[in-house]
Amino acid sequence: MLKLTNQQLNQITNFRECYVEYPQITEIYSIFDRLMFNSTVGGEQESLLLTGDTGSGKTALINNYLQKFSVKKGRWEEMPVLNTRIPSRIKEQNTLERFLLDLDDVRSSRVRRTHREGSLTAGVIRTLTDKKVKLIIINEIQELIEFKDAEERQTIANTFKMISEEAKVSFVLVGMPYSSLLAEEPQWSSRLSWHRHLSYFHLFKNSEQHKGLIPDKLGKIHFAKFVAGLAGRMGFDDRPNLTCDEILLPLFAVCRGECRALKHFLSDALTNALSESKNTLDKEILEGTFSSRYPNEDNPFRCSLNQLNIRELRIGARYNKDAQFKEDKLIDRTFTDLLPIHMLLSKQPLKS
Question: Measured between alpha carbons, how far is 242 from 213 in angstroms, rounded to an integer?
């Protein structure tokens, strides 16, 4: 058990709970705000489909947005944004019951016990109106795609449409990349007016002109700014310099562009630095952190830049609805082959 002072524990907690907002997130938040505004002026409400691979920061984005609203749980308290998720057993009744549970609606407990979808729908609409909900965020929406037939999806889509029309509330549907398949179905396509995708960070991009991968300077700058934002939230008086190539590029090798993996690694490194009474985070700490987490892998912080290789996300998680067996329907994300870092300094394209 690590022995840390209360100040050090707070420093770690503050970092683990911090959030770095970058331009794409700001734009998504502006869509959230627009949907909430539209709820106040009536008319037909629109919906947003927000997709992103595992670890891209979807849930963190939602939680950070909710911080804008001071919400107290209780029967009579207003709730501008309802944050909920698709239940593990996906049926119309279970979905509505989950809505009422997350609305913390005591009055509706009797309605839930009736097990009548009509009563549940009316209860949800009434409660949404009473609590002045303007936006419903539903996470894990890919569950509607996985192993559910079109009839079940249409039933839930029609229920969402009724709730949106009667309660004058917009929906934000959040899920894995293959959630975009919902937009291809007639009963969903016209209701998903907005679509945004949270991407992994990347250092290379495809070039049709060169028919291969070439360095992406803007991608590197974007990643560096994000890392700098995290460094500034570590709580050290001596702010760590994590954006020099000798540290930034090995960090990318560690996380492969995944936001969650990067933050978990830096959280461990921060803990190690504090346990050793360091006044900042340096390459030595990062090297030791990698060795303790991945003892059987080559340590990128010990590697010279001209020998360092990285991988990036090549294809996100997919869903093959035509697969014969259930275990073949979900296809995991795939990454590129090893890409040499020296390509970032070269004008020659790398064949994909």
Answer: 26
User: Quick one: tokens of 35?
Assistant: 């949907």
Of 289, 236, 302, 234, the closest CA to residue 261 belongs to: 289
Report residue 135: phi and psi, to 5°. Answer: -150, 135
Domain around 243: 202-310
pTM comes to 0.90
CA pair distance 44, 321, nearest whole angstrom: 32
Report whether 197 contacts 51 (CB < 8 A). yes
Chain-centroid distance of CA 107 in Å reads: 33
Based on the fold, state whether residues 36 and 185 are members of the same structural domain: yes
Do 248 and 192 form a contact (C-beta atoms < 8 A)? Answer: no
Q: How far apart are the first and last CA of the chain?
A: 46
pLDDT digits (tens, 9 = 90+) for 302-352: 999 989 999 999 999 999 988 888 888 899 999 999 998 887 765 455 544
Length of the chain: 352
Q: Is residue 350 part of a domain?
A: no
End-of-domain residue from the set 198, 216, 231: 198
Question: Does 258 lie in the same domain as 109?
Answer: no
Same domain, 171 and 249: no
